[in-house]
Amino acid sequence: MIVCVLIPRFGLLAALGDRRALLAEPVALAPEAGREQYVGEVSAKAEAFGVAAGMRVGEALSRCPELRLVPPDPEGVRGLWREVLERIESIGGEPESERAGAAYFAAGGLRGIHGGSLDGVLAATRRVLGRGARLGVATSRFAAWCAATQARQRRATVVVDRRETARFCARGRSSRSCRRRSSGSASAPSASSRRCRRRPSPSASGIPACWRSTSRAGATPR
User: Which of 67, 70, 75, 222 has a Cα at 20 to 30 A from 25?
Assistant: First the structure.
């Protein structure tokens, strides 16, 4: 079985850092310097006003005049995502990731070191990642990703039975969440994904503040 680890609005979380309280307000990632004027990931409150990732800044502000634009932090995203991948590796997983916010690893070989069951693997994953991560489990990456997009705070792990995979994927392809392609960490996996290349570990100061805020305080973006 494949486990998909999905952390919604990962780029926005990294950019906010210890200002995570702003997630309760209409906020969005501002365009990077020199790039086209489109907003990046947006908070749930911004979505309620009709603002979506990939929308032109002018249109986003017309829909939500109170929208607060947060400068993106690409280096912070890379450092924070390395921390997430290292946490998965700490339980024996071999994570593969195309972009920050979504990673995949095989659970089969880990059962023996986590109580002999899938539940043990998922419990260990939850222990190192905290409640801010959504977990989807299925026989393929796409199905696992669709399962993770269906996870919510009250049901943070969704497991798709082998016999239900085809039906689940068919339903997932037509669902709104599984059609999203431009919302950062929620994008679907491609067939060309490769093993994430390891980089030097973050500074010895410990877990980045924005990751501490999601894993320890349990602040789960909706």
Answer: 75
144, 82, 193, 8: CA torsion to nearest 10: 40
Which tokens in the block code for residue 185?
A: 């960490």
Q: Which domain holds residue 181?
A: 2-9+74-190
Cβ pair 26, 51 in contact under 8 A: yes
Residues 65 and 79 in one domain: no
Domain of 18, CATH number, reads 3.40.1170.60
Strand stretches in 34-146, DSSP E: 68-70, 96-99, 102-106, 134-138
CB 219: neighbour CB atoms within 10 A? 18
In a domain, 207, yes or no: no
pLDDT of 10 = 94
Q: What does pLDDT average to in each consecutive run of 10 residues of the chain (222 residues)? A: 94 91 94 90 95 96 96 93 96 95 95 93 94 91 90 80 74 52 48 38 32 37 38
